[in-house]
Amino acid sequence: MSEVKHQLQHYIPIAKTIAQMFGHSCEVVIHDLTQPQSSVMFTINNHVTGREIGQSFDHLVKQVLLSDEFDEDYLAGYEIKTEDGRTIKASTTLLRDEKDQVIGALCINYDMSAVSHVKKLIGELIPGLSNEMPAKQRNEDKDSMQSVDEIADRLIDQIISHQKGSLKKRQEKIELIRFMDEKGIFLMKGSVDKVAERLGISKVTVYSYLDELKKMKESEETV
């Protein structure tokens, strides 16, 4: 067992406690972010979103790291939608090792179906009732922005270093860039430069691969 996995296993009792505390509608997932392509290492009540051990992360970059409200290594109360249209209220906390490196994430996903039904009933009984919480104010200091950049850098390094294969062939590089594109890596500022440097190719090549992937996707959608 790797040292990182051993450290992350210490969070499993916390995950189980949260799930038992909030019941059947509450899913808790632990990600090993040193293994980005198969980051899910533990899940409980996974009927909520269908997360399985060995899957990769989905919302970490697009909805957590890039959120205006992400600060101090956590984002609480953002919403995601399941394929069957259910609303999930989610929270993500990054997990660091003794060297202050991000090694994992603990995610709580709560199915709001029953709550929404109750809220609707209460709203009908008490018109104008609102329990919305004020938005969390983000700390826009330099350290906060550097933290996100460092996390992005580490994710890119981990994704490339754990890629199966030699990455000598063009198709292998395209598939790796496809994975990073799907996970939102290229939404991060400066990510194209970083990926190009680590893969030993030009920025123009990265953009051409992304353009090729976009055209392939559009072609598949029109079939």
TrEMBL record:
It holds the Pfam family PAS_6. GO terms for molecular function: DNA binding. Residues 153-211 form the Transcriptional regulator DauR-like HTH domain. The keyword Ligase does not apply. It comes from the Bacteria. Keywords: DNA-binding. Residues 8-120 form the YheO-like domain. This is DNA-binding protein. It comes from Bacillus australimaris. The lineage of its organism: Bacteria, Bacillati, Bacillota, Bacilli, Bacillales.
